[in-house]
């Protein structure tokens, strides 16, 4: 589904990603781990099409299509979803209104009719229950005054609403207490299917107890330096990143 | 004779006395013309909407003191920050008092405007800086420029950290029936230099005094200036303070204004940015009563990108006193990434006190963070009651709350002795004898 | 990469033509240009006014002659040449219609383009509409339904004749003839406008609505609105404005007076969409309006405005909170684009005890426009426990426009509490990217963010107006976004 080949990217002349290769197939869960500053968030931003980052070499393909020339919203329409590490506040725009706009824009791009209001409401109800989200929450301004946990839960709620092909969860566990983590992970697991794939970016192994990865990759200094099964995460947790640093 | 007429007739006499051949002759003449055209400001002007000079201008001010007056150190000791060693530039009725002063030419210049304006060795500096940042359109500034002769001249060379604060003190003795004084200060702080300055105007008896002061401050690259104005004069003294500050890149300038005394006080405080990454701070505490009037008129002209300004003014008004806060933040088109903040909080303690506030934002750049907040209110009654129920008498409780209200500004005073002094003045002003160790 | 940038949006905006810029070809009865006492008398005569009204106009005209045009506002424009304007223009047909069948089909077409249909549909939606085209009121619907409740809703000309006592008592009582330059001019030459009276204790069952339109070239529009809510009554009043696009500037100087007697409430909403001039800043309407309301005891006046049109706007809907416990509110969205200039805000004059006022102002500037908020909160020494909360937010789009705030706060009472907050911001790149990532294109994302920014005010508008206002916001800012 996702194929990254020799990806080099950076920001303002500073190289951050220095040749990433990654293959993700439908139905798989991949975890990307690594110390601070190893390029984890840059990778997610580049896949989502953030134009602050410049791709200098290599390619990112989704189902065989090169994403390079696509705007962020076009990538979203093709099924790329990024759960932000720091979700942005948009004052005055309610969660519901935002989701309605996002869903209908995607449908428009695919030449479909707008989703009827009753269907939309039903979907919202269903998905908010999945994430144990209070309905009142949905009429609040997007991310404004949300607690850290609420913001992350809201990200996964949006993922549930948009049903992406490829979901990238960037440090979704940061700022979550254990109950919230369980709810979020539970939501993600229910959304997992044969037809989609998930990339979990995290610093710690804890989240991976709940969202169990098929593969774990260690990112260090802009490269994937180690790949393995879920046991690699435990090894990392135990030995710490110094182990990786020492080897490289 | 009306004051304006008197000034017109005095001007020629003044020019003859100070030397008509001087290079400054043209500067003075032009400035005087501007004043002559515009006259004293009236309430019809937007900038003077809330402050009237009419009553004050009715006094029969003498423009030049008739004789030199000397004061004994013991009479004025209490007006110095005596806890700490300082450089001192002291004037009595507008005339330099070498006896009370402690100036220096050793590695830095802390001396007199009159010599800077006349001696050849200062000519280049005067040509480059004198009257260069002062607003030439403003009539009172022009009036000062026309009669500019005496004041403090401070020039700090590159990378010099001035160890002792500098005090600029203007005494008026009141031997004249009414006196108009117009000090003119020029302060140049060289690249990477650091200086702390304290300015005070003090009259020593009850005859009316009007001070129309102009201070120009040039803050060069990376320099740091902390400027403190103590305005705690007696009730017949009025002050119009015009301060103009030009800042170069990465410099940091702060002005704290403490207005407790005086009859009418008007502070025109202007900051002009001439480089990136500049930091400007404007803070003030006003605590007045009776029929006192304090008007803060501030301008921060953001002309360059990536600069910050912080304004925080607190006012407490009792009896029939009146307060004005007119704060203008101007962000030019080029000044992207400006971060400008302005806060003005006021407490009215009496039925007859009033406050007029006009915080203004004029913004022409889009990527900026600007905000202003203004509140007018009372002391928190619940907090008062809470303290009283814990046995703190009403007066002390009130004083504590007011001190707490002003604390944000007091906290940022960087000279400890100065902070102690201000705290003490506030306690006296609030009529309590207590330390505020908040 | 194919990315729709803010720059693209700007270009599109600049090329966007004014949607309502059509001119209705209806024969008009237009006065010669120029202004003197004879013209004032002629207007009064044409309208068959009683003598006191004529005298009142003449008094205003004489005062106006002595006045100078104000210059303090933060706007720059070529002063209207008052002697080149025609002060009266009326569609040359019978000016009053009993039923829609009598209305000129072309006029009906105009209304349709404006989005106002004075047909059954509109009737069903429960809005009574009075339409003032150029200077004359052409249709007042729903009159009979309203009459049953004792509500008077008619053109001001009709009111001067039929309800002379009421008009005489209240006209000029809140905005005196000599109040300001434009108010004086309006008092002298106003040609029509709306009049509304809600009797004691009556809650007006429907929204009352007026549409104003300037049609004829070289004419000024000077309408006069007078709304009186008698004790304990309630009315919600809507006002919409459009004008055809023309190269020359058209002058609009209206006066609106609201009187809310004890325990009454008036809600006055405006969507102003006069022609703003073309993208070079040519043409457009000069909108110099005086709006003021008086609150007696426990009364409430709420002004809501969405200002997207006009080349130059000068307008401060105000409340005089005379009665104890009275409440004043001002909710405003002002959008400026291209070369538009707006200097708008409010005055809240607190005279009575326990009076409360709220000001929420949202300014959005784009293109080369200048947008100023100017407001006064004044607490008199008698206004014990007065409360004010003001919030002025500005949003800048692009780097050629300006946002300005000039709040005046004057308090003479120690028990008053006043809070004022203001912010200026731009649309964040990170906000746009976040929307993009969720599949929302940049253009739509900006529309979404602008609507969010304006939400607090949009929410104050009556439902059907809110939809229209939202659409207008998008038209004035976001090009083809719909």
From TrEMBL, chain A:
PROSITE patterns: ABC_TRANSPORTER_2
Record InterPro entries: AAA+_ATPase, ABC_transporter-like_ATP-bd, FeS-cluster_ATPase_SufC, P-loop_NTPase
Domain ABC transporter: residue ranges: 2-246
Keywords: ATP-binding, Nucleotide-binding
A single MF term (Gene Ontology): ATP binding
Source superkingdom: Bacteria
Keyword Zinc in record: no
Record Gene3D superfamilies: P-loop containing nucleotide triphosphate hydrolases
Transmembrane segments: none
Signal peptide: none
SMART domains: AAA (SM00382)
Keyword Glycoprotein attached: no
PANTHER family registered for this protein in UniProt: ABC TRANSPORTER I FAMILY MEMBER 6, CHLOROPLASTIC
Record family assignment: Belongs to the ABC transporter superfamily. Ycf16 family.
Record's protein name: Iron-regulated ABC transporter ATPase subunit SufC
From TrEMBL, chain B:
GO biological process: iron-sulfur cluster assembly
Signal sequence interval, chain numbering: none
Record domain SUF system FeS cluster assembly SufBD N-terminal: where: 4-168
Residue ranges constituting the SUF system FeS cluster assembly SufBD core domain according to the UniProt record: 177-405
InterPro entries, sorted: Fe-S_cluster_assembly_SufBD (IPR055346), SUF_FeS_clus_asmbl_SufBD_core (IPR000825), SUF_FeS_clus_asmbl_SufBD_sf (IPR037284), SUF_FeS_clus_asmbl_SufD (IPR011542), SufBD_N (IPR045595)
PANTHER family named among the record's database cross-references: PROTEIN ABCI7, CHLOROPLASTIC (PTHR43575)
Similarity-based family: Belongs to the iron-sulfur cluster assembly SufBD family.
The protein, known as: Fe-S cluster assembly protein SufD
Organism: Flavobacterium endophyticum
TrEMBL record, chain C:
Single biological process term from Gene Ontology: iron-sulfur cluster assembly
SUPFAM superfamilies: Stabilizer of iron transporter SufD
Domain SUF system FeS cluster assembly SufBD N-terminal stretches: 124-204
Pfam families: SUFBD_core, SufBD_N
Residue intervals of the SUF system FeS cluster assembly SufBD core domain: 212-453
InterPro entries, alphabetized: Fe-S_cluster_assembly_SufBD (IPR055346), SUF_FeS_clus_asmbl_SufB (IPR010231), SUF_FeS_clus_asmbl_SufBD_core (IPR000825), SUF_FeS_clus_asmbl_SufBD_sf (IPR037284), SufBD_N (IPR045595)
The family this protein is said to belong to: Belongs to the iron-sulfur cluster assembly SufBD family.
Protein name: Iron-regulated ABC transporter membrane component SufB
Organism: Flavobacterium endophyticum
Lineage, top ranks: Bacteria, Pseudomonadati, Bacteroidota, Flavobacteriia, Flavobacteriales
């Amino acid at each position: 589904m996702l194929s990254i080949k020799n990806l080099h990217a950076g920001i303002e002349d500073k190289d951050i990603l220095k040749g990433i290769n990654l293959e993700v197939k439908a139905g798989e869960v991949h975890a990307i781990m690594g110390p601070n500053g190893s390029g984890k968030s840059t990778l997610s931003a580049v896949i989502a099409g953030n134009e602050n980052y410049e791709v200098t070499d290599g390619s990112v393909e989704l189902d065989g299509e090169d994403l390079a020339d696509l705007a962020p919203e076009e990538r979203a329409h093709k099924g790329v979803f990024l759960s932000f590490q720091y979700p942005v506040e948009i004052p005055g725009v309610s969660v519901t209104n935002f989701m309605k706009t996002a869903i209908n824009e995607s449908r428009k791009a695919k030449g479909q009719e707008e989703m009827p209001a009753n269907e939309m409401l039903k979907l919202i109800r269903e998905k908010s229950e999945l994430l144990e989200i209070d309905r009142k929450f949905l009429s609040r301004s997007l991310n404004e005054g949300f607690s850290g946990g609420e913001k992350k839960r809201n990200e996964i709620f949006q993922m549930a609403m948009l049903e992406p092909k490829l979901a990238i969860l960037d440090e979704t566990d940061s700022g979550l207490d254990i109950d919230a983590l369980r709810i979020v992970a539970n939501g993600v697991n229910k959304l997992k299917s044969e037809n989609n794939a998930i990339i979990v970016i995290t610093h710690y192994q804890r989240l991976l107890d709940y969202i169990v990865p098929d593969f774990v990759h260690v990112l260090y200094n802009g490269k994937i330096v180690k790949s393995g099964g879920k046991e690699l995460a435990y090894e990392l947790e135990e030995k710490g990143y110094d182990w990786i640093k020492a080897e490289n | 004779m009306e004051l304006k007429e008197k000034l017109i007739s005095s001007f020629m006499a003044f020019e003859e006395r100070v030397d008509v051949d001087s290079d400054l002759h043209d500067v003075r003449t032009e400035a005087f013309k501007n004043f002559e055209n515009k006259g004293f400001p009236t309430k019809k002007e937007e900038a003077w909407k809330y402050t009237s000079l009419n009553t004050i201008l009715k006094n029969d001010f003498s423009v030049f003191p008739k004789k030199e007056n000397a004061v004994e150190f013991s009479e004025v000791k209490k007006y110095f920050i005596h806890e700490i060693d300082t450089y001192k530039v002291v004037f009595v009725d507008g005339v330099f008092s070498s006896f009370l002063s402690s100036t220096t030419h050793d590695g830095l210049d802390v001396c007199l405007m009159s010599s800077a304006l006349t001696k050849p060795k200062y000519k280049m500096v005067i040509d480059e800086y004198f009257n260069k940042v002062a607003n030439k359109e403003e009539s009172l500034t022009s009036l000062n420029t026309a009669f500019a002769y005496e004041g403090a001249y401070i020039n700090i060379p590159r990378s010099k950290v001035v160890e002792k604060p500098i005090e600029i003190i203007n005494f008026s003795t009141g031997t004249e029936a009414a006196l108009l004084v117009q000090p003119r200060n020029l302060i140049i702080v060289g690249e990477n230099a650091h200086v702390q300055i304290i300015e005070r105007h003090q009259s020593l008896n009850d005859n009316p005094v009007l001070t129309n002061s102009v201070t120009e401050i040039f803050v060069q690259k990376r320099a740091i200036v902390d400027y403190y104005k103590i305005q705690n004069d007696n009730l017949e003294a009025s002050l119009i303070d015009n301060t103009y500050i030009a800042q170069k890149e990465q410099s940091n300038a702060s002005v704290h204004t403490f207005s407790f005394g005086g009859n009418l006080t008007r502070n025109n405080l202007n900051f002009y940015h001439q480089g990136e990454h500049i930091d400007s701070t404007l803070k003030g505490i006003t605590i007045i009563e009776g029929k006192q009037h304090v008007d803060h008129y501030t301008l921060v002209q953001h002309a360059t990108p990536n600069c910050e300004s912080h304004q925080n003014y607190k006012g407490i008004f009792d009896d029939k006193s009146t307060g004005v806060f007119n704060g203008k933040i101007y962000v030019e088109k080029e000044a992207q990434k400006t971060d400008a903040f302005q806060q003005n909080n006021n407490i009215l303690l009496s039925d007859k006190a009033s406050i007029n506030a006009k915080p203004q934002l004029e913004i022409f750049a889009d990527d900026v963070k600007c905000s202003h907040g203004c509140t007018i209110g009372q002391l928190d009654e619940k907090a008062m009651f809470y303290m009283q129920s814990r046995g703190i008498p009403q007066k002390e409780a009130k004083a504590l709350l007011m001190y707490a209200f002003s604390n944000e500004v007091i906290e940022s005073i960087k000279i400890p002795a100065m902070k102690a002094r201000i705290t003490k003045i506030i306690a006296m002003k609030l009529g309590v004898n207590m330390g505020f160790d908040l | 990469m194919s990315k729709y940038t803010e720059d693209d949006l700007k270009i599109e905006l600049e090329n966007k033509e004014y949607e309502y810029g059509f001119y209705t070809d209806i024969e008009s009865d237009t006065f010669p240009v120029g202004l003197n006492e004879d013209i004032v008398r002629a207007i009064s005569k044409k309208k068959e006014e009683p003598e006191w009204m004529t005298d009142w106009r003449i008094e205003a005209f004489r005062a106006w002659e002595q006045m100078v045009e104000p210059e303090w506002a933060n706007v720059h424009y070529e002063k209207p040449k008052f002697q080149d304007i025609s002060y009266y223009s009326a569609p040359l047909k019978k000016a009053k219609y009993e039923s829609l069948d009598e209305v000129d089909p072309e006029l009906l077409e105009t209304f349709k383009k404006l989005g106002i249909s004075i047909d059954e549909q509109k009737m069903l939606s429960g809005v009574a509409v009075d339409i003032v085209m150029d200077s004359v009121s052409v249709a007042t619907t729903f009159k009979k339904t309203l009459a049953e409740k004792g509500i008077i809703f008619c053109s001001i000309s009709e009111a001067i004749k039929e309800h002379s006592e009421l008009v005489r008592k209240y006209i000029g009582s809140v905005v005196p003839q000599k109040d300001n330059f434009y108010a004086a001019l309006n008092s002298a030459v106003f040609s029509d406008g709306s009049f509304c009276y809600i009797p004691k204790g009556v809650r007006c069952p429907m929204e009352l609505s007026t549409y104003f339109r300037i049609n004829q070239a070289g004419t000024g529009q000077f309408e006069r609105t007078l709304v009186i809510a008698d004790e304990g009554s309630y009315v919600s009043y809507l006002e919409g404005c459009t004008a055809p696009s023309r190269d020359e500037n058209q002058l609009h100087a209206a006066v609106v007076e609201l009187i809310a007697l004890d325990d009454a409430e008036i809600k006055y909403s405006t969507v102003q969409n006069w022609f703003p001039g073309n993208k070079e800043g040519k043409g457009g309407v000069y909108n110099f309006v005086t709006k003021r309301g008086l609150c007696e005891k426990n009364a409430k006046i709420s002004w809501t405005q969405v200002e997207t049109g006009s080349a130059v706007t000068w307008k401060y809907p105000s409340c005089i909170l005379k009665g104890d416990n009275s409440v004043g509110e001002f909710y405003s969205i002002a959008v400026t684009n291209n070369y538009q200039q707006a200097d708008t805000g409010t005055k809240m004059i607190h005279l009575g005890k326990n009076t409360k006022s709220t000001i929420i102002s949202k300014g959005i500037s784009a293109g080369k426009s200048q947008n100023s908020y100017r407001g006064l909160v004044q607490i008199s020494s008698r206004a014990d426990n007065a409360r004010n909360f003001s919030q002025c937010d500005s949003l800048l789009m692009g780097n050629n426009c300006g946002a300005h705030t000039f709040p005046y706060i004057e308090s003479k009472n120690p028990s008053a509490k006043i809070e004022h907050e203001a912010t200026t911001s731009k649309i964040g790149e990170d906000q746009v990217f976040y929307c993009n990532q969720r599949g929302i294109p940049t253009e739509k994302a900006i529309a979404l963010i602008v609507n969010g920014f304006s939400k607090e005010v949009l929410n104050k508008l009556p439902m059907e107006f809110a939809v229209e206002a939202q659409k207008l916001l998008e038209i004035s800012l976001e090009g083809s976004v719909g």
